[in-house]
């Protein structure tokens, strides 16, 4: 059963519950299998796979508990990031409280205010890795 897949020419990455498969699409050949992507570490397991990404060097797996990066050409785990390692800072947009107002509410002055929100869920959603930059987007559902 496929949990997530990503096609980045010429490679198709397909992730199952515990293994990932990399296919060379032009030749229709399975070129690599990354086994045991759910192997427990000090922060637990990936849990539900939300998103996968692939490039020439790495395969990225966003789980509901962790981000894991495996090297292509052997499948070694080279990096993991747990949700507990991320800062949980939220920002509220509030009115500026200044006397400078516009007739339209669209153009009212606003300010950012750091806030603490108790989150009912905190999930990984997207990862992208190019060059020397890693972008990891999460979202929180607050109650």
What does this structure look like?
The chain is mainly beta and 143 residues long. The protein has a domain of 93 residues: Thrombin, subunit H (Beta Barrel), CATH 2.40.10. The chain has no helices and twelve strands. It has a four-stranded antiparallel sheet with strand order 1-2-3-4, with no helix packed on it. Strand 3 and strand 4 form a beta hairpin.
Record the SSE blueprint.
Blueprint: E1 4-8, E2 11-15, E3 20-24, E4 29-34, E5 49-54, E6 58-63, E7 66-71, E8 77-82, E9 90-95, E10 110-115, E11 119-130, E12 133-142
Antiparallel strand pairs: 1-2, 2-3, 3-4, 5-6, 6-7, 7-8, 9-10, 11-12
CATH architecture of the domain at 4-82 and 124-137: Beta Barrel
Share of helix, binned? under 10%
Order of helices and strands: EEEEEEEEEEEE
Shape assignment: elongated
State the low-pLDDT regions, or none.
none
Return the CATH topology of the domain at 4-82 and 124-137: Thrombin, subunit H
Number of strands: 12
Major sheet: 4 strands, antiparallel
Q: Distance N terminus to C terminus?
A: 33 Å
Q: Give the radius of gyration.
A: 20 Å
């Amino acid at each position: 059963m496929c949990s997530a897949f990503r096609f980045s020419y010429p490679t198709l990455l397909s992730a199952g519950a515990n293994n990932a498969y990399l296919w060379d699409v032009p030749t229709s050949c399975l070129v690599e299998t990354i086994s045991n992507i759910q192997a427990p570490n000090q922060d637990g397991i990936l849990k539900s796979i939300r998103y996968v990404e692939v490039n020439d060097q790495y395969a990225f797996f966003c789980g509901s508990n962790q981000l894991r990066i495996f090297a292509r050409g052997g499948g070694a785990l080279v990096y993991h990031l747990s949700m507990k390692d991320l800062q949980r800072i939220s920002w509220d947009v509030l009115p500026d409280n200044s006397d400078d107002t516009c007739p339209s509410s669209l153009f009212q002055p606003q300010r950012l205010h750091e806030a603490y929100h108790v989150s009912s869920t905190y999930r990984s959603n997207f990862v992208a890795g190019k060059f020397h930059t890693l972008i990891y987007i999460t979202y929180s559902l607050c109650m």
